[in-house]
Each structure stands twice: as C-alpha cells, then as structure tokens.
Amino acid sequence: MAVLGLATGAGHCASFGTSVRVLCQMYRTGNLTKMLSNVLIARRNLHNTQQNPLFGDSVNVLGQTYQTDDWTNISPKVLAKVGQNLHNTPCNPLNLIRKRIQNFFYNNFIKGGRPLFSVYDKISPVVTKEQNFDNLLVPKSHVSRLPGESYYLNSTYMLRAHTSAHQLDLIRTGLNSFLVMGDVYRRDEIDRTHYPVFHQIEGVRLFTSFELFQDVRDSTNLSLFEDGQRLPDRQECHTMDAVKLLEHQLKTTLYNLAHNLFGADAEIRWVDCYFPFTHPSWEMEVKFDGQWLEVLGCGIMEQQILHAGGAGEKVGWAFGLGLERLAMKLYNIPDIRLFSSKDSGFLSQFNVDNPDTPITYKPISQYPQCINDISFWIPDDFSSNDFYDIARNIGGDLIEQVTLVDTFFHPKTQRHSHCYRIVYRHLEKTLTQGEVNEIHKNIEDTAASRLGVEIR
Ligand code: PHE
User: What's the pTM value of the predicted model, to 2 decimals?
Assistant: First the structure.
C-alpha cells in the first residue's frame, strides 16, 4: 500500500485511490493514528536489530556520502536508478509528456510577456525526512513514514517519495508559480504497472488578494482570510469566496490540461480525497476503455505551509501528477519497465521533434514468460515489501511481476505461510529455465537468511 496520496504514482496510483478513501475514514475515527503508532514501533524495533547487509558504513548517492544506520533500507538496484533522469532524456516518452505539460503552462499562463511558471527539473531526489514529511504537515504516525513504504539512506535522508518535498523550499525562495519535475521513489509490489521509481510533476500557484479577485466585478468587500472553523470544504482561516475562486481556478487549469493531453472528448470527473498538505483536496479521474483511472491529486494548500514559507499573506493551490501512468495511456505502453529500456526499437518510436505528434507504441517482440512459485513460513514481523525488494534486487528488470497468490494458517503450529508467484521475462530475449532457476534459488536463499522465512 502506498499512501502519501493517491493517484500520482506510476501504476502506484491504482492502490492510492482506495487507500486514500480508507485512510480518510480511519483518520476521522482516529483508529489510524493508534494502529500506525503500533506498527511504527514494531517496525522500528525490527529495524534496530537488522543492519543493512548490502552496504558497509556508508552509501554514496550522486557523489555524496551518507553514513548508514538502522534506517538504511535502500537497495543497490534502486540506487542504480538514481541519476537516470528519464524526464530529461531525449526520445524518452516521459520527456515528451513533460514537454507537453510544460508547454501547456508556458502557453496558457503568461505575465508581462514571460511564462508565469518557472520549471525545476534538476533538483536532487535526496531529501530529508523533514522535507518529505514534516514540512508538508504529514503526521508523525502517517503510514507513508513506515520503513516499508519509502527508501531511506539513513535516519535523516531519504529518496523523495513525491515532488511535494520541494514545495516549502521553493516558496521560501520567494517563488509564486512553479513546476517541479523529477524522479520519486516508493517501495511497492512489482508488476507491469508498479516500479520503485517513477516520475512526477508538481505544480504550485500562489495568489495575492488582488490577483485572486481581480476579475470579480465588485471585489471591494472580498478578502482572503477570516477567523472561522475548519469545515469539509475549507480551512479555518479561508473565506468561502477565496476557496471557491481557488477551486475554480485549479480545476479549470487541470481540466484544460487533461483535455489538451487526452483530447476534447476525454471524460473527466473529480473525487474528494485527503492529503495532509492540502484542504480541501481532490483527485482527477479520466475514463479509459470504460474504466475510471486516477491521474492526479490536488487541493488548496494548507495555509500553515505558506506561513512557514514566508508567504502567509497569499493563498495557493497545488497539484501532483504521475508521468508514467499518463504516458502508458497516452502512448499505449504496456509495461512500466520499458521506460528505462535503452532498446532502440523502443526509443526510436519516440524520436519526434514536436512533442504533440500522436504516437501509438508498437510492441517490440514479446519473449515468453517463465513462472516460478515460492512458498515459505513467515515470522511475525514479516512485511511483503521486504520480500518484493529482495526479489527486485536479485532479479532486477527480469522480474515482470511478483504476486501473493496464497496464504495459509497452520492451526497446530500456529504459523502463517505465504506463496508468491514470480513471473520472469526478459524484454529483449528468451530466458532459459536454467537461468531463471538460478535467480529463483538465490531469491529463496536470500529471503531465508535476511527475513527469517522458512522455505516450504
Ligand atoms: N504529493 C501527492 C502524491 O504524491 C500529490 C499532491 C501534490 C497532492 C500536491 C496535492 C497537492 O500523491
């Protein structure tokens, strides 16, 4: 379960939507905080007793050295993805789609003859926990802080789990309208639409009272702030006038963006949701092949964040969208692993000068899958994400999917067992059963020694 939000993942999105709805409910009842504090304590205890066996005292990321400690849970395979910068790589579909989104903002928001939004696409993905969570008011007990959800370099630094991690810093520099584009990292299950790294675009726009109300005919009595109560549709400090105008502005902008990307006939709807850093908050869903799919999360920025950034006299909206999910739909790309493929058969299909050129991906040859199951008895503190990481670390991009296919409780021994199905497939050649068996055995042995599972 990946739960910072929602819809902004690669295919992470699929799990976000539901979990957000469930989370909202749990937040309201207070059960979430209780449950999560217990889980956090249990998981921290587990981590205190486990050293990361894959690194020594330190880990090097983008030329910087970080001392490892009992929080370190980054894996070499994920580390190898840092610095790939697919969103800045010509011919990569992620680069095409980010250009389209950037152009949309450049063309539609101009102030004094210049683009209103400035673009940041080279900010390092290494951030502090403070940037990723605290600055965004993510509660200490929020599930997204669990070691099972994010990649930590140590107890201070992590790989950003969303581009929102840069909101406060950029507001502090005095910016009012900006887009942040970059790679983000989340621990998750593995399949065709889930990958531990994906890409997001964050948008933030702040308004002074003058800017927000300038098009209202009689705006003399309008103000941004009042002393009120927090309600489902506004924060305690915002006036209804301010919130309604901001909501209208935000939704129109994103609605136009979605039509720009997916065509005038695209069906779009809004769903209420929850983020710690916006209120009220919404997800946008777009209909593809008869199914609603969450594509972005957004909302009115929490005023406390603007205060902390020295922009307390303004109000603002923010959104975050996941590029892989959009690109997979837009270009008909069937497998998320293809984005990091260096295969010319893939990249040459996206070699166009004009990012608006319509492209439908034609699959390069499909090689057969090899399917192997693995069953084991699990210890009490077992987390599936730890197993997915081991599989991914050993099998890398040869692993197309890992799914939990069966669970079993033995009444006599009182032990639980899990069975995972691992689907192996090479994107560029046929794998032999011998090659697969070797990797599979390595995964079994590593899971047994690191996670304390007992292979059945
Ligand atoms: N950061 C959120 C996520 O990754 C998306 C978001 C950004 C939501 C900005 C609201 C405002 O899910």
Answer: 0.80
